Structures are given as C-alpha cells and as structure tokens.
Amino acid sequence: MNEIRILPENVASQIAAGEVVDRPASVVRELIDNSIDAGAVRITIRIEKGGKGLIRVSDNGMGMSRDDLLLCIERHATSKIETASDLYSVKSLGFRGEAIPSIASVSRMQITSRPRDQLEGHRLKISGGKLTAIEETGAPAGTVVEAKDIFFNMPARRKFLRRSRTETDHIIDTLSRAVLPYPTINFKLEDSGKTIMNFPSSNQVLPRLSSLMGRKVAESMEEAEENNQGMSIHAFLAPPELSRTRGDRLFVYVNGRNIRDRLITRAVAEGYGQRLMKGRYPQVALFMELDPSNVDVNVHPTKQEVRFHNSRTVFQAIASTIEKALSKSSHPFFSQVIHQDENLIKDNRADSFTFVSKPAPGYSSKGRTTRSPSTAEVHEQLTPWEPMHERSMVKEGPEVIGQLGNTYILCQGKDGLVMVDQHAAHERVVYENLKKGFDVSHMEVQSLLLPHELELSAKETRIALKNGHHLSRIGIELEHFGGNTFLLRSHPAILKNPQWDSFFSELFEGLEKGEPEDESMLDKLLTVMACHGAVRSGDHMTHEEMVHLLTQLEEMDLPTNCPHGRPVFKHFTYYEIEKMFKRVV
Questions:
Q1: Which residues of 185-213 are buried (b: 16+ CB within 10 A; e: fewer)?
Q2: 227 pLDDT exceeds 70?
Q3: CATH topology of domain 334-426+538-580
C-alpha cells in the first residue's frame, strides 16, 4: 500500500490559502494591491466584525470582463507576468495570481465588475472555492469584491482569530501602510457603515504623513532626496527627540511596495546614529525606487519581504542619505545667532559664535556632598580652543547665566532659555576627542607611578587575558598579577579618577559581545571611556568652565546628543514659558 498520496484539490487550496491569508488584514492588503494595479483612483473598504463577518473592497479601476472573472478565480492566473523571466522585472504589486483563489477557498466570495468600455457588468459567486453562479448585472465601472465569513470552512483556523477590535486594528495598520506611496488615490475605510479612516487624494505626501503621524510630527520632518547608482531615495525624517519605544512608525517602500526588512531598519538606525538612545525607534517614511531586476520580491507569500541584489550598496545609500539630511538640520543654538552678513555664512562650521561670559552671580549650592573638582581639574579634561576673535563675524550668542543643581547649565538666548546637561555635553566632547585621537593613533596615556589593583570575576579575567593587546590600543595596560588580580599600569589621560570597578565592568561587558576591530565595538568602548571621563551630575563648575565646555561643544560633529543618544540640551522659548505662567492664553 502506498504511503504517499495526492491531496484533494480543496485541501491543497486551503493549505495554499493559509500562506497568503492568515487574518482579515491579509485579505484587505491583497485586494487593495489589486485595486491599485487596476489603476483605481478611488478605493473604499468596508468591514464588519473586524473583517470576520465582511470585507468589501470597491474601486473604479479598469474592471474585468466575464471571461476574466472566470479566470481570476483559477490558481496562478494573472495578467501581470507571462514567463519566469518576468519575475525580475515586476513593477506591479500583485503578480502570482494566488490572492483571489486563496481568499475564495476560505470564504463566501462575490465579485462584481464592469470594464470601462462596456455597458454591462457581471457578478460571480464562489463559496469555499466552488463556483456557484455567474450572471449579468448593472454595475459602475470598476470592481467590487466581497468576502464574507472568513475561514467559515476552517473552524480550527477561525478560532485563532482575535476579537473584532484587534482585527480592526490590524486592518487599520495595513491600510495606513498602503496609502503613503499613492497620495493621488482616495482611500476610505468604513466599519459597519461608519467611516473610521479617510484619505482624500492629494498631489503631496505631507497630508498623508500628517494624517498618519500627526501634524506636529509631519511639519517637523526633514526631507531627504538622493539619487545614486540607479537608486532613488526619498525620505521624510522626524527629529530624534520624537522617537518612540516601538518601530511601528517606520514606513518603508520599494517601488511602491510596503516591506518589512531588517537590513533597511538597521540602515535607518545607522543613519540616525548616536542621535537615538538604545531601544528607541525613529519616525520615518522611506521611499526607494530601483531597477526591478535588482530586487527579488518573490521570496515570501505575503510579498512583504524582499531580497536585494547588492544589499551592502542599499544599506550604505540609505544610511548616508539619512545622515546627510540630519546633519544639515540647524543646531538649536544657531537660531539664536544674529549674523551681520548672511552671505558670509557658507555652512554650519562658519556659524560659530562667542558665548557671553559675564561674572557669575553669587549663589550657594546646598545639600550636595559630592566633591567639586577644581577649575584646573576640569580644564585639564576640556581641550584648549582657539581665540574667539578669530572666528566668523557674528554677534554674541546665548549668555551663560548659571548652573542648576550642579547638573544643568542655564543659558539665556535671544528667544528663550536653553538648559544643557553638563555630563551629556562633556561626554560628547570627550568621545569625539577620543575618537579623533584613536583615528590618528595619538591617544594620550597616563602612566601610574603606583598601579591600581583590580579584583575581577572569573569571566572578566578570561576577557581581560584574551583582549590584553586590544586594550593596549585604547591606552589601557593591565598586568596579570595572578589569579583574578590585575594591576592597572596606564590608562587614557582623559579619565580622571573614575570608579574603576564599574568602568571595567562596563568595558568587559562590551568586549564580551564582539571584536574590538569592529567599528561598532570600538564606538562602544570609546563611549564607556567617555562616560567615565566626563564631568558628572553633581559636580560644581565655575562660570568660566561652563563657557569653555559650551564653546567646545560647538566644535563637535554632533553637538545635539551624547554618545548614548541622550539629548544634550533642551530649548524653552519665551512663549512656552509665558504659557506655563498663564501670561498668554
């Protein structure tokens, strides 16, 4: 007796449908794709019970004849491709000919359609994959697809569907991701006759972004465009301070197709770099146009995963485009500078200005027991700077007016108050100085006359012995003294009396997760060193030290964020302050 048998057609169809249709939102996505491919400029989706009761998608596209209606319910019947080679030049959203027959096999479906050049339409009815009727009918030009009772013939699959509210949320997310590349198409979503989403047609993407992300986010977005090596990138980037704990506001499109791709997600994060804290995700709309032969869209049944021919080039292009756009965004301090001649200013490097240094008002700090470093100690950590009179001809900038809680530097600007986190600011300065010193193989090292004794754990001992030569490259010399004991012979000069136990604990944690030759790993090590080498919260700073620190901050490549991604400063306008005190309504 044979053990292998051919499955019945209805079973095979249901198995295939399970790959394409896993919930009502999948049905909505496939039907929307078909409507867009049909050239529709108006698409209306109506659902009931979260799509479990009814999904109805109507459009005013090209429509289908009677023969096409009968063919569209056959598996692998499509108008998008003819040969296997066409898979490498796909420009449409659909191409496999699987969506309609898959949906029909797990629902009670009805399709009504009329081509634009014909006077009469036709209605086709199919239940559980079996054709029940086809008839002539009056209908507007376009196509209406109704799918009722999803998974009615697969009770085991139907019980895995969530409650109606949850399924509706998935449909909303699906529609939200479909509408951005097609602003000229009017989309509407109705739930039991009530309109819950409406996207009027427009010639611009900004109204769609405003509807999806909010007006404040949309208006603050930085627009970036880049054409490189046959690839076009158009991105809308929200400021880092508007980042979120979830990556649900990252919209990525390749040739108009919404995709979810880890490579592109990493490239976006790389472009934002140290502007984002760990665990935070930016709000981004990224549109890519490239030769279809350089991207394979036939790698997953849902067509939301793709494979790039040259993924490294794509990664670098996206990261570079985002980094350039964010670098161009003005420094908040710059907005407070009044230039004598705008034509003299060519770039941000020329926008330097002098922080006003006036005698600090006399006040005392109470309740702090932390030892305050002397002026000389802090100046040793801060790099010398050029005389300010040699800089561009600009008027005086914000005035340093004091220190709040031995933690924040307060500056009075032309249009408000700027609070600077002294630790984050100095951490940025130390990090970039360390990196520049490492890049030119000139990192200042402090040798200890009396070595510092360290007791490490067994795991830390193993890491220290394995990475001794790597540690020496960043100025740290550890001598094994037997067992788990090590002697610290030298360290980077920038580190001033850190807590060595916590410093090495963080340093070894970073070494355990990668090789120091990797650029990302080197950044982690330098970040740990910068954190422990910077002025800390609670350290008192003199007025001159604060002015010196902010002057150095202006010279940094990324003065807005510390190496961990935390913001360095916060700007409060006079209007915001007056609203706080009810001086304005």
A1: bbbbbbbeeeeebebeeeeebebbbebbb
A2: yes
A3: formyl-coa transferase, domain 3 (3.30.1540)
